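> example.struct
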């Protein structure tokens, strides 16, 4: 029996609602497979934990997480209890940085039957490779002076290594997909970092002669995500540009509640972390209506990372079939609850005898 050791951090808000659902789905997949198991270790690190302990995770939190095969996280943030910058730097960003999860992969694709806000959505299917450790999210900056003289300063930091790493990741991915990389830039030289970004892109591109490329200013690109998303394959973007583009990716699918993500430690030295694109959604927390699909699709990305690609593919197909059947939460035009959507996915996995036979080892 192959066992995967997974650290589970439900976090705040709807993270606490959708994470248990995704774990049930993973357990169902393990049952169907027959030859593998998940050992989930839960960590109650969130804003309530902060109120009790004065920190988002224990002093040795990072060492505790170090030994796991992967980290499965819901969302972090309860601004009514703890300021966002405290909770995020203390948990989410801390894990991303300490474990050098420098690449954030965020797919978006058209699903049949979903209420996309696009009037005539064509079948789009792209992946945003977001630089995940530097850029506009650098720690260089601060606030000086007071009152009407106050100044906030944020320095974006783009290292050649970090920029090149994100781009190579995107080109490698494009080689396995449709052979096209789009760079999200702002190359008119107003922002100092972007001509540098373009230079690195030009340099990396030379090593991938078979991959076609395009470069768009981020403002135009954001609009193209809405007007012609079907033209994109792999999109490489800086930290903040990638953050914004991937909420648009979620929105054009029908809801940010669907969009999955993977924070990847590329050298395999540390665990990678799997958490959806969406946040803790305080506005709907406690109502049982959060869309669990983003978290469940994120579980599929974790399966891929763990080498269980066939199982992940099956999960994606079943998820898509359940959505096409109209079993969906309110954010995508349905009436089902979080639990009803999950149960439909679980039932369909169990009923699908063909899957069982194919995956049984
Ligand atoms: P959000 O993603 O939590 O919510 C934005 C909108 O999308 C809300 O209207 C919400 O109801 C809806 N939504 C999000 N997920 C949904 C789901 N699964 N099903 C249905 N609807 C869903 O973003 P926000 O409101 O800007 O942030 C709320 C908190 O979450 C803040 O504290 C923020 O810092 C934090 N946050 C955390 C993460 C993370 O941990 N990865 C990501 C984004 C935001
Ligand atoms: C995301 C979130 C985070 C980010 C926030 C909560 C720091 O928006 O994962 O997309 O900007 O990276
Ligand atoms: Mn975001």
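> example.seq
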């Amino acid at each position: 029996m192959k066992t995967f050791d997974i650290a589970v951090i439900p976090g705040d808000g709807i993270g606490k609602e959708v994470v248990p659902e995704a774990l049930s789905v993973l357990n169902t997949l393990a049952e169907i497979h027959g030859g593998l198991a998940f050992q989930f270790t839960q960590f109650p690190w969130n804003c309530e934990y902060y109120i009790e302990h004065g920190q988002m995770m224990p002093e040795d939190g990072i060492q505790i997480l170090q030994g796991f095969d992967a980290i499965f996280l819901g969302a972090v943030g309860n601004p009514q209890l703890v300021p966002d910058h405290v909770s995020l730097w203390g948990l989410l960003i801390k894990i991303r940085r300490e474990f050098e999860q420098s690449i954030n992969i965020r797919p978006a694709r058209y699903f049949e039957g979903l209420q996309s806000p696009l009037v005539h959505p064509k079948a789009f299917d792209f992946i945003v490779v977001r630089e995940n450790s530097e850029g506009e999210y650098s720690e260089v900056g601060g606030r000086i002076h007071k009152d009407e003289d106050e100044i906030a300063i944020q320095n974006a930091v783009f290292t050649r290594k970090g920029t090149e790493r994100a781009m190579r990741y995107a080109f490698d991915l494009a080689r396995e997909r449709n052979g096209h990389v789009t760079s999200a830039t702002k190359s008119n030289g107003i922002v100092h970092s972007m001509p540098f970004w373009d230079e690195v892109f030009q340099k990396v591109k030379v090593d991938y002669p078979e991959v076609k490329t395009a470069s768009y200013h981020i403002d135009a690109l954001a609009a193209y995500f809405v007007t012609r998303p079907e033209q994109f394959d792999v999109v490489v973007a800086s930290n903040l540009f990638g953050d914004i583009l991937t909420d648009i990716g979620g929105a054009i699918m029908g809801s940010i509640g669907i969009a999955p993500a993977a924070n990847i430690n590329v050298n395999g030295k540390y665990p990678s972390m799997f958490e959806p694109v969406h946040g803790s959604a305080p506005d709907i927390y406690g109502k049982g209506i959060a869309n669990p699909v983003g978290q469940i699709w994120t579980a599929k990305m974790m399966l891929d990372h763990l080498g269980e690609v066939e199982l992940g593919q099956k999960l994606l197909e079943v998820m898509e079939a359940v959505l096409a059947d109209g079993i969906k939460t309110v954010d995508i035009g349905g009436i089902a609850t979080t639990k009803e959507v999950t149960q439909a996915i679980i039932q369909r996995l169990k009923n699908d005898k063909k899957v069982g036979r194919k995956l049984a080892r």
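> remarks
The domain at 1-101+272-361 is CATH 3.40.718.10 (Isopropylmalate Dehydrogenase).
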